Every structure is written in C-alpha cells, then in structure tokens.
C-alpha cells in the first residue's frame, strides 16, 4: 500500500507544495535549526528570512513534497554557512549584537553542562557540526542528512561517527 | 541504544533550540523585488471547508497573535477541551513530526509539563490501543476505512481540560516546546476544519486553468532535475482556459449523469470567498489579488451518483486544472479531527480519485 505523508495543511492542498508554505509551516523549526548553527536568534531569523526571500524570489516550486523540506533546510544551511564565513572575515554585523546561546552571557538561558556541549560542538569542523546537528537535533536519517547537506549517505554516516568521536574528545579534555 | 554523549548532545541542542520564542518571531516576507506568489489560490478555492485550516497552517507565526485577536478565545464559557496527538511512526504521520516518534521519556516529560500548567485542570492519556478501539467503535460499518487504518497508524494523545478562560495558544506553545506534536485539537480549530451549515457548498469543484498556471494539466512545464538534490522547478507557465474550452466544459457538465446542478464561479466571487476564509491573515490577503483567483465550476451531485465517472471525465477536459472532491476532503478533515491522522486522499477515496 502506498505510503504518503500529509499534514493537515496538505490534506487540503494536496501534493503540490510551494516553498512559501513550507517556510510558513516550519518557520519556528527552521529558525531553531539556524540558531543552533549561528548562535543567536536575530541572525538565525535573518538567515531564514534571506533563504526564504531567495528561494521565493526564484519562485521555487517543488514538485516533490518529500524533498521539499530537505531543500528548504539546505537553503537555510547555506545561509548559516555564509554567515559563519562573513563573521570569519570580520565583516560588520548588520543586526544588533546578541550573545550566542553558547556564550557565558547567555548562561541564564542554558545550563552550564548544555553550554559546554554546544561549545564543544563549535570546535568541530563544519561538516561534522552540521551532520551532528541534523542527527541529534532534527533526528534525521542518514539519507535525509545526506540530502540536506548534499553528500552521500555513507559519507553522512561516517561524518557523524567521526564527529561524535571528536566531540567526545573535546568534552573529555574540556571537563 | 544511545550513548550518554549522544544524549548530552541531543539535550543541549534541544535546549538551545527551545530558547527561540515562537511568539516573537518576525513574520517572513518575500523580497520586495517580486510580488510574493504564495500559491494559495488553488487552496482557497478548494472549498471554504478547508480554507480556514490552511490559513491556520500557513499563517506566519508572527500573525498568530492577530489571528487570536480576530477571534478571541479567552471569552469562552466553561472548560476548554484540547487534545494533543503525539507523533508516532505511522504511515499517516503528520510532517510536523518530521519522521520522528515520541519516545517514552518525551511522553512522560509531556505529561509532567502538562500537569504542572496552572491553566490545565485535568490530563487524561489515551494510548494507541485505546485510540484504535475508539476508532473501531466510531467508524463501525465503514469496512473500507477500517481496513485502511491499522492499529499502528493510530496516535496516542493527551486529552486536556483547560480552565475556563485559559490561554489555549500559550498551552499549545508550551506543549510543543517539549516535543513535536502531530496534531493539536482545540475548539477554535473545529469551526475551521468542520464548519457546519452552509448547504450551498459544492460536492465537486473543477478549477479551471488561469493565466500563469502552474498545473501541468494547463500546459505548465516542470523541469526534471538532473540531480536528486535539486527539486523540480517550474520552467514554463501554463495557459489559461480559452472561452471555447470553457463553453465545452460547461456543455460537458450539462450532459453528465449524476450532476444535479452546476455553478460557475468567477474570479471576483472566488476572491470574495477567499477574503472571508482568510479574514484573519492580513499577510496572505496582502499578496493575493482578484486576478490571482482561479475560476471554477462547482457541482452538486445527485444522491447515489457515480462520482468517479464525473471526476474522471472532468479531469480529462482541456482547460481544467484540477478537480477536487470536497466530500472526500471533508471526510479527511473528520478523521484528522477525531484521531489526528491524515489518511491520504488516494487511499480514502481511491474509488473516486484515480
């Protein structure tokens, strides 16, 4: 029997998915994803907004609902990457400064133990960090992670394994 | 199965993510360069039945407040029933679950969180087996549906009674911060999902091709992407229905057995309906114009008519973008309301939908 995933929204809309509704439906989730990547909500919101404007301006219309979310997540990921790049180049931030969630200034928001884990995650190479986030934040499968990151499923699997090992090392040294 | 390290990582990420307050998010805006083309046109005209829910889903979170103000829930008399259907690896899972099933720990956390909320008066839990039993009882006689839905498709749920005047949105927000919720059922949603009255609603709606249609039935061309990573993108827009085609469709409908009456809805009328359905979402109304609306034929069927033949025939007519079986949608909405699951239309109305 055919298996089809429909949300209450899609029950109504049927198979056709457009980027705008994916964004609207997953707005909070996408901002959260961006937040754990870039560290602060203001930038995270900007990243999602920019990804939305870009894909939407291109009037992206997705024919494949299963892949729509992966596509949108990729767009958000790309946005996060360029933010990180820009920061590395010490460009001036457009948004007012907001301390990253893993910073000491944000200690009120998160417990010390959680903050340490996030700090350790920051230390990892980008790919490992992204793969771990997709696996342990979004609970995505190897295949979904691969699609979002644009790599092979087996690469995703090994990246996660290496990332976990590295994370363990960083935390072991840090604590 | 999870190592302590994995658990630590998971918890840290969840906690970081939870610092995002959904209620303060700025709404998304398409770039000013091009007018936003939220393709709600087709959705809206699909029928007022469902338009409301679509609105509820599609509204940017920043709009939620406005929705609430437009429809004040606070003044509700008496206790408020809210049900939270939890994610399960069901074949009819809501994408809100993102392929995820609630773990026993998450269930327990959810239970504790709900019980601790001052607005919550009572919490009852219905597990999958109990939900299935209820399903069997409530749809008794509908063998096709009973065959379709298995016990593993059912969702466990928390059934809450909120104190009179409770802030439903706040309770839902809090609950959703614990873990993903497949479907949240609350009184206000009922009116949108299952409006009653309105006898003039069509049984079957045939949406006609508009200019710039994205429907392949209207000649739109969608790129076949070279790699699997890139989703397919619209390359060429379709063509609108011609006056001759429209006449032919009207004539064909006249000869169809089982059609009791047909009404042609023009763009203006469609827009009025759309405006009514989306009254609470200013963002959506701002981007949709009269010229965006599709025209349609709305049919009422005679009792006992062969719907599948009519729908099939309509689908094949040139200039028809899409045919919608409103009764099937309605049944889907009822199942969603009762059990939190979305039975695909192909399954539910297989005989009617090719």
Structure description:
The complex is a heterodimer of chains A (175) and B (354). Chain A has helices at residues 8-13, 19-38, 41-57, 65-88, 112-123, 126-136, 142-149, 153-174, and strands spanning 17-18, 61-62. Chain A is mainly alpha-helical and 175 residues long. Chain A is globular, with a radius of gyration of 17 Å. The N and C termini of chain A lie far apart (51 Å). Chain B is built from 15 helices and 10 strands. The two termini of chain B are 44 Å apart. A 4-stranded antiparallel β-sheet of chain B has the order 2-3-1-4, with helices on both faces. Chain B has a 4-stranded antiparallel β-sheet with strand order 8-9-5-10. At the A-B interface, helix 1, helix 2, helix 3, strand 2 and helix 4 of A face helix 1, helix 3, helix 14 and helix 15 of B.
Task: Record keyword descriptors for this entry.
heterodimer; A: 175 residues; mainly alpha; 8 helices; disordered N terminus; B: 354 residues; alpha+beta; 4-stranded antiparallel β-sheet; 15 helices; 10 strands; globular
Strand and helix map with partners:
The complex is a heterodimer of chains A (175) and B (354).
Chain A: H1 8-13, E1 17-18, H2 19-38, H3 41-57, E2 61-62, H4 65-88, H5 112-123, H6 126-136, H7 142-149, H8 153-174
Antiparallel strand pairs in A: 1-2
Helix pairs in contact in A: 2-3, 2-4, 3-4, 4-7, 5-8, 6-8, 7-8
Chain B: H1 4-18, H2 41-45, H3 48-58, H4 64-70, E1 80-86, H5 104-116, E2 120-126, H6 128-138, H7 143-148, E3 157-162, H8 168-178, E4 181-185, H9 187-193, E5 204-208, E6 221-222, E7 234-236, H10 243-255, E8 259-265, H11 267-277, H12 282-287, E9 296-301, H13 307-316, E10 320-325, H14 326-339, H15 345-348
Antiparallel strand pairs in B: 1-3, 1-4, 2-3, 5-9, 5-10, 6-7, 8-9
């Amino acid at each position: 029997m055919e298996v089809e995933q429909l949300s209450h929204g899609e029950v109504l809309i049927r198979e056709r998915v457009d980027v705008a509704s994916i964004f609207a439906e997953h707005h909070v989730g996408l901002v959260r994803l961006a937040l754990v990547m870039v560290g602060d909500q203001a930038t995270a919101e900007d990243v999602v907004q920019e990804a939305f404007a870009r894909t939407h301006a291109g009037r992206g219309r997705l024919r494949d609902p299963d892949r729509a979310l992966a596509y949108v997540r990729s767009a958000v990921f790309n946005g996060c990457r360029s933010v990180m790049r820009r920061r590395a180049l010490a460009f001036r931030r457009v948004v007012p400064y907001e301390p990253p969630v893993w910073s000491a200034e944000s200690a009120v928001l998160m417990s010390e133990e959680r903050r340490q884990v996030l700090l350790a995650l920051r230390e990892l190479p980008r790919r490992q960090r992204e793969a771990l986030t997709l696996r342990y934040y979004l609970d995505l499968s190897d295949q979904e992670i691969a699609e979002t990151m644009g790599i092979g499923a087996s690469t995703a699997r090994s990246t996660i394994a290496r990332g976990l090992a590295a994370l363990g090392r960083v935390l072991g040294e840090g604590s | 199965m999870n190592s302590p390290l994995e658990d630590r990582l998971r918890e840290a990420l969840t906690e970081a993510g939870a610092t995002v307050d959904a209620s303060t998010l700025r709404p998304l805006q398409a770039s000013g360069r091009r007018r936003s083309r939220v393709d709600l046109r087709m959705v809206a005209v699909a029928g007022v039945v469902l338009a409301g829910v679509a609105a509820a889903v599609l509204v940017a979170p920043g709009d939620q407040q406005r929705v609430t103000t437009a429809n004040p829930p606070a003044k509700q008399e008496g206790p408020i029933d809210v049900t939270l259907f939890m994610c399960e690896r069901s074949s009819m899972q809501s994408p809100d679950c993102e392929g995820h099933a609630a773990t026993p720990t998450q269930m327990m956390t959810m239970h504790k969180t709900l019980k601790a909320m001052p607005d919550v008066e009572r919490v009852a839990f219905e597990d999958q087996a109990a939900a299935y039993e209820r399903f069997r009882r409530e749809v008794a006689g509908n063998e096709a549906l009973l065959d379709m839905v298995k016990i593993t498709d059912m969702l466990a749920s928390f059934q809450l009674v909120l104190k009179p005047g409770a802030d439903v949105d706040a309770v839902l927000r809090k609950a959703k911060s614990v873990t993903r919720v497949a479907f949240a059922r609350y009184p206000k949603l009922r009116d949108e999902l299952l409006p009653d009255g309105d006898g003039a609603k069509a049984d079957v709606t045939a949406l006609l091709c508009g200019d710039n249609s994205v429907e392949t039935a209207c000649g739109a061309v969608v790129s076949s992407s070279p790699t699997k990573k890139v989703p397919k993108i619209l390359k060429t827009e379709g063509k609108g229905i011609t006056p001759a085609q429209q006449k032919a469709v009207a004539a064909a409908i006249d000869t169809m057995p089982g059609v009791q009456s047909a009404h042609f809805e023009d763009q203006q009328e469609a827009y009025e309906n759309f405006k009514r359905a989306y009254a609470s979402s200013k963002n959506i109304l701002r981007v949709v114009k009269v010229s965006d609306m599709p025209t349609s034929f709305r049919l009422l069927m005679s009792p006992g008519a062969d719907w599948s033949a009519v729908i099939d025939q309509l689908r094949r007519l040139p200039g028809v973008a899409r045919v919608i079986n409103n009764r099937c949608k309605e049944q889907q909405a009822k199942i969603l309301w009762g059990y939190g699951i979305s039975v695909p239309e192909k399954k539910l109305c297989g005989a009617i939908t090719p």
